[in-house]
Amino acid sequence: MTFPDGTEALxxxxxxxxxxxxxxxxxxxxxxxxxxxxxxxxxxxxxxGRVEADRERIGYVFQDATLLDWRNVQNNVELLPQLHGFPKxxxxxxxxxxxxxxxLTGFERHYPKSLSGGMKMRVSLARxxxxxxxxxxxxxxxxxxxxxxxQRLNEETQALFQREGFAGLFxxxxxxxxxFMSTRVMVMSxxxxxxxxxxxxxxxxxxxxxxxxxxxxxxxxxEVSVALEGAHASEASHE
Amino acid sequence: MSExxxxxxxxxxxxxxxxxxxxxxxxxxxxxxxAPLITFILIIGAWYFISYVRMDAVRRRTALPAxxxxxxxxxLVWEDRKGLKPILEALLVTSRVALIGLGISIAIGVxxxxxxxxAKWAERSIFPYAVIIQVxxxxxxxxxxxxxxxxxxxxxxxxxVLIAIFPVITNTLFGLQSAKEGHHDLFTLHHASWLTRLxxxxxxxxxxxxxxxxxxxxxxxxxxxxxxxxxxxxxxxGLGRLIDNYQKDTRIPELFTATIVACLFGIAIFLIVGWISxxxxxxxxxxxxxxx
Lengths: 239, 292
Ligand SMILES: Nc1ncnc2c1ncn2[C@@H]1O[C@H](COP(=O)(O)OP(=O)(O)O)[C@@H](O)[C@H]1O
Ligand SMILES: [Mg+2]
Fold this sequence. Notes:
Shape of chain B: flat
Bound molecules: adenosine-5'-diphosphate, magnesium ion
CATH class of the largest domain in chain A: Alpha Beta
Oligomer: heterodimer
Number of domains of chain A: 2
Low-confidence stretches of chain A: none
Largest interface: A-B, 35 and 29 residues
Number of helices of chain A: 8
């Protein structure tokens, strides 16, 4: 991928994510991770290469919750079925289910203004869940919430993945978040982004919170961390 | 799930904060009324002082009658061609012109903003002319308007629209364009049509800016109606012409009364639009908290 101004963002990336797989990409900032997701979702046309994906009902969770401030929680969650022309009753049912799944039952009539960052992110997740998307893209969705909230959201995302069995492609800066949720972790190099290395995560689902204290968990995080440091080093040598 | 419970707590403490805020707000509310009242008393005092200490009897009659004279000869008299009655009749005429002008400004202004929002070239083609309308003094357009629309109510409405439409166009356009990139991406991902995007994203998002524009336009349309009435003086008598007549006939107390009525009318429209704005935005926009 090369932008019109000549910035070469991605180079020679090739991978696939199947249903029931949760792949996480970690990499230095500015290496082209968001660009990769925008290409995968069809928001951006690649300058070369091609993408095969079911994009009819794509799930895309942005770093910002992107809620509509004038809609309460219920109506925000109903947005996507509404855009896809679902009948009202169906919309309501899907939204209520999704709101329950993310634990926000009782907050339906609240407006975004009165929600915490973590709760807004949950609404954003619920909104995406209403369509039961086969492909679920996440662009650093939990980067702006505090550590404890983030861990809870990780546990919940992992539970949702187990339940829904979608194909997940997740982007993050946090190594433990990556290892905790994924079936596979990929490390990307500095710009132009390439896949440097790949790690299969051997743990089964559902994953419990105390997995984080498991020795093998720590070891895997360590390996990814070393690879990521290598990716940053390659950036330093570029400059 | 578990974290939701966790987060109810901040929500509860917010309720406490709201109570404190309520008390603070009541205090502030008292000031809201007390402060202008004190100013009012000071102004009346200064008025009496100038009227009685600085002026002789003749000028007191022709330039600045005392407040109680204005009150007695202007507000308390109710006769066919004297006192408050003709003033209120003129107000009716002027307010009709102002409301029609405001309505037309909003309709045309919003449509133009939507057109300008759809394509950069449309914005480039229209915006300069909107600016030209705004910066051209109404006085310079009076002969043209007179040629095209005559001397009656339509000409006055045109003056109103010329003054009120610019803030509607610019604020609505700004509002429509303020939808965030991420929101547009979301709508793009889900194949939203042009109309869906406009109706579900851009128009609701434009409400705060649109309402700000409407507040400015409302004040402008009242000025436009009075000014238009001053220039186009055929048919029903509005406030502008009445004020001019009173000035020529040295009916100063009634001149003051008519001016005060025009002023109160402007304030009333301003408050009504502010109230509508507050009702519409109360759940989601910061600006809604500033009005009560
Ligand atoms: N529209 C664009 N035009 C030019 N350069 C861009 C554009 N979008 C992103 N870039 C550049 O491409 C690189 C990758 O950006 P991005 O994918 O957002 O990185 P990441 O998400 O990994 O932090 C950055 O250097 C960024 O400045
Ligand atoms: Mg990014």
